[in-house]
Amino acid sequence: EADIYQTPRYLVIGTGKKITLECSQTMGHDKMYWYQQDPGMELHLIHYSYGVNSTEKGDLSSESTVSRIRTEHFPLTLESARPSHTSQYLCASSASGRYNEQFFGPGTRLTVL
Amino acid sequence: SQQGEEDPQALSIQEGENATMNCSYKTSINNLQWYRQNSGRGLVHLILIRSNEREKHSGRLRVTLDTSKKSSSLLITASRAADTASYFCALNQAGTALIFGKGTTLSVSS
């Protein structure tokens, strides 16, 4: 079954830790995205990729980095987590083409103490 | 701002009633999409309407698009408690990622 997965679902860590949020999709989509969303608020695009070895920063400045070495995998890394990084992180993917319908993972809720 | 602006921000109705939420925008679009988000979860795509379409149906959902007024509406008929969620419109412009609005929070009580 085609799907998009995120791990972990919940993460509580201390300030200064390095973390990687995982995102994988089995739909063969070229495009993948990371959004940051605070509770009850809008989504902010922080990174996107239109293919392997292609990554771009989104509208919201973020201290995170991403990589796209394989089509199905789009991990997000925070080198040194801070309380301001506490948020929900949503990964999405879409096929190439003009419609750009996005499929979302369940999200990772990150809390930095 | 290029994002869609949903209205109202919050909506509370009884089961069986219809729910209407609106999205206004300022730029030209290829299509407009509506998504639903249950609390603490990812978004789920509901329906897409292309810029050359005026109305589209999917089950209990009806979406309209008026490109001259740069606005869209989502109607959910015969609402159920399970429809309680946040609803987002998303603008698809050529060559860019989707631009999401701030969302309408719908609460359906039984």
Features:
heterodimer, A: 113 residues, mainly beta, seven-stranded mixed sheet, 11 strands, 0% helix, 48% strand, B: 110 residues, six-stranded mixed sheet, five-stranded antiparallel sheet, globular
Describe this structure in words.
The complex is a heterodimer of chains A (113) and B (110). With 113 residues, chain A is mostly beta strands. Chain A contains no helices and eleven strands. Chain A has strands at 4-7, 10-13, 19-25, 31-37, 44-51, 54-57, 65-66, 76-78, 87-94, 103-104, 108-112. In chain A, strand 5 (44-51) and strand 6 form a beta hairpin. With 110 residues, chain B is mostly beta strands. In chain B, strands 2, 4, 5, 9, 10 and 11 form a six-stranded mixed beta sheet that branches. Chain B contains no helices and eleven strands. Chain B is globular and about 40 Å long. Classes of the chains: A mainly beta (113), B mainly beta (110). Chain A binds chain B through residues 6, 33, 35, 40-43, 45, 48, 58, 88, 90, 92, 98-107, 109, and chain B through 3, 30-31, 33, 35, 40-45, 48, 86, 88, 90, 92, 94, 97-98, 100-103, 105.
The stretches of 5 or more residues of chain A where confidence is low (pLDDT under 50) are none
- Helix/strand/pairing category of chain A: mainly beta
What is the terminal separation of chain B in angstroms?
37 Å
Helical content class of chain A: under 10%
User: What is the total tally of β strands of chain B?
Assistant: 11
| SSE order of chain A, one letter for each helix or strand | EEEEEEEEEEE
The profile of the biggest β sheet of chain B is: 6 strands, mixed
What's the total helix number of chain A?
A: 0
Hey, which two chains have the biggest interface? Answer: A-B, 24 and 24 residues
**Which structural class do you get from the secondary structure elements of chain B?**
mainly beta
**Any idea what the shape of chain A is?**
globular
Weakly predicted, low-confidence segments of chain B = none
What is the terminal separation of chain A in angstroms?
Answer: 37 Å
Oligomeric grouping of the chains: heterodimer
Summed over residues and divided by their number, the pLDDT of chain A gives a mean of 93
Beta content of chain B: over 45%
Radius of gyration based on Cα positions of chain A: 13 Å
Order of helical and strand elements of chain B = EEEEEEEEEEE
The number of distinct helices of chain B, counting runs of at least 4 residues, comes to 0
Please give the largest β-sheet of chain A.
7 strands, mixed
